[in-house]
Amino acid sequence: LLNRCSNATERMLEFAATLDPKSHPTALRKLGEAPKFEASPKQNYTTENKIAPKPASELPPVPKYTPYVDPLKKTAAFDVIEGIMQKRVMVIDGAMGTAVQKYKLSEEDFRGERYKNHTHDLKGNNDILVLTKPEVIREIHEAYLAAGADILETNTFSSTMIAQADYELDKKEEVRDMNLAAARLAKAACVKFTEQNPDKPRFAAGAIGPTNRTLSVSPSVENPAFRACTFDEIVDAYYEQIEALVEGGVDMLLVETIFDTLNAKAAIFAIEKFFEAHGERMPLFISGTIVDNSGRTLSGQTNEAFWNSVNHAKPMAIGLNCALGAKDMVPYIENLSKCADCWVFAYPNAGLPNAMGGYDQKGPEMAEDCRVFMDMGLLNAIGGCCGTTDEHIKSLADMVSTYAPRKKHGVKDLMRISGLEPFNYEPNEKDYRKTFINLGERCNVAGSSIFKKAVVDGNFEKALAIALKQVEHGAHVIDINMDDGLIDGESAMTRFVNLLVSEPDASKVPFMIDSSKFHVVEAGLKCSQGKCIMNSISLKGGEKEFLHHAKIVKRHGAAVVVMAFDEDGQAATEAEKVRICCRAYKLLVEQVGFNPQDIIFDPNILTIGTGMEEHNNYGVDFINATREIKRLCPGCKISGGVSNLAFSFRGNEPVRRAFHSAFLYHACKAGMDMGIVNAQQVEEDVYEKIDKELLEYVEDV
């Protein structure tokens, strides 16, 4: 029975004065000099249970929300490819580099007339052959189509300003011409073969490689927070490439060979930006690269964490390519096939490289190695990467022709976030406390004076040590906040997140990027390859600003915290909290298309025990609002800054910690999913172990 009597705060203060402020709520110590405490008589007690659920008959009905409809129209290729994938296994082409090597082209061949006097060697820059030796690329394309390929990749793996800088060709007109010519060559070959056999349509896929830069790994051993380029630079480079590929006539886009998921997120950001600008959406395939038998990308993510990070793009298909031969790829494709609700593909190498870096596996042998994918029902499309030729593709096409494709399946609707590892939140609806998500508060300048001092002093190594300790002590997510007048928030956020990403023991958990300034939050999102929680947006600035911010957060692929604020200010009462959160939920699911599982409401945990009567019911209001918001906004989550509750008792550790434990006990019974907490204390201060006398006073307040 919470908020039980009108003089609860006074009685709490009297009792708190008798306690050793350094003791723990589960091992309470009284001050030795203090007189024996005698509480004033309990008067004016209510018998009403203020946090009891209301009878269903007294509750308003759950609103009917209009399903989100994507305003962008889909290209004709969508339905055609979907139809084929339901009926048979599609075939992707093989390696471009392997095929080019057979022609033994010279430096002069690569240069052609166009680059006759270029200042840098160009041999090895296969992408420029679409301009200097288009007949070679055309011949390779047609050989793959003749072998049975349904999907033909453009020769544009490195056709970005960033990658072409290695050859001093980082000029917009050069890169545009490469992508345009490559797309036209691939599309022309597809049209030719489709006309020959209309029952087997062919598709040109705009190949978008990873670039030769990585956004999650520092090129400097001495400075792990340094990056050779920024997220925005990668986005701009990809946007220019996509623009030319689409103009050249590609049917779909393929983001491939992803060794750093943040690069892929930059590509997705650019793709979504392009789709929105042009009002049309085309099929998107995304392919990651597991670099070795650790089962991780070069930047350290597991393949399920990778999927959690990119599935906001709603790709038509997800897959893996390169680095491994078919045998080694099986367990990772199997895992991807289980967790992905879209089509799945693979295009492995022709076995493992020999001592000279070449590939010895022939087509029939590779096809037999790949047969296990089909026997296990894991794939909807298959192709070849390094070391494969048209011979390999023919063998694969013949092998898969007798197999039925993998059946697409749904997955449980959960909040799925990630660091280096996946974090799939499946609440225990009978006891939310058992599955409560500890959002570690010690990397928040408002939650730790030690962390704040480290950041102000520029001692980011000490700040990193604080993050590591939080994870060791049970934080499931690290909350990062740099909002302080002494700190340049954007710069500090960028530096610290980059540093965190370089430390696997810290970055294995997801991050909550936290700031009241949207540009600071976005700076943090641009540094994290995992799927983050963005904290926060609100209706304080009106609906237009709210929707604008929400769309950007969605494009970054993050879950979002929505504070219970609107144009009139902060929600304090239960009714205000419920009204504002329901309004925000409706906007997010109907107009932005946010997954309800990724919507987290913070209905404002406000300070109680202040001595002001209007504050007395704040704890009860939060708990009751939590229950009602969860009922009226299906799938949403509830969070809050738990340390706000007992600011009145700061300095008195046993009292504050007892408040936090008791509050979480009751709030979780109402459906609270997560909170910004001291992870170690939350694990230690079990409600059932709190000193019973202290607990009575706490719950009175």
Low-confidence stretches: none
Number of strands: 22
The main pleated sheet reads as: 8 strands, parallel
What portion of residues is helical? 40-55%
Rg estimate, integer Å:
29 Å
Name the overall outline.
elongated
Q: How many H/I helices? A: 25
Mean pLDDT: 95
With strands numbered from the N-terminus, the spatial order across the biggest sheet is: 2-10-9-8-7-5-4-3
Give the N-to-C terminal Cα separation: 10 Å
Strand percent estimate:
5-15%
Which structural category fits the helices and strands? Answer: alpha/beta
Q: In a few lines, what is going on in this structure?
A:
By secondary structure, the protein is α/β, with parallel strands linked by helices. The chain is 41% helix and 13% strand.
Question: What is the strand and helix layout of this fold?
Answer:
Layout: H1 8-16, E1 73-74, H2 77-87, E2 90-91, H3 96-101, H4 107-111, H5 129-132, H6 134-146, E3 151-153, H7 161-164, H8 172-196, E4 203-208, H9 231-247, E5 252-258, H10 261-278, E6 280-281, E7 284-288, H11 303-310, E8 317-325, H12 326-339, E9 343-349, H13 363-375, E10 381-382, H14 390-400, E11 415-418, E12 422-425, E13 437-444, H15 449-456, H16 460-472, E14 477-481, H17 489-501, H18 504-507, E15 511-514, H19 518-525, E16 533-537, H20 543-556, E17 559-563, E18 565-566, E19 569-570, H21 574-592, E20 599-602, H22 618-632, E21 637-638, H23 653-669, E22 674-677, H24 679-684, H25 692-700
Parallel strand pairs: 1-6, 2-10, 3-4, 4-5, 5-7, 7-8, 8-9, 9-10, 13-14, 13-22, 14-15, 15-16, 16-17, 17-20, 20-21
Antiparallel strand pairs: 11-12, 18-19
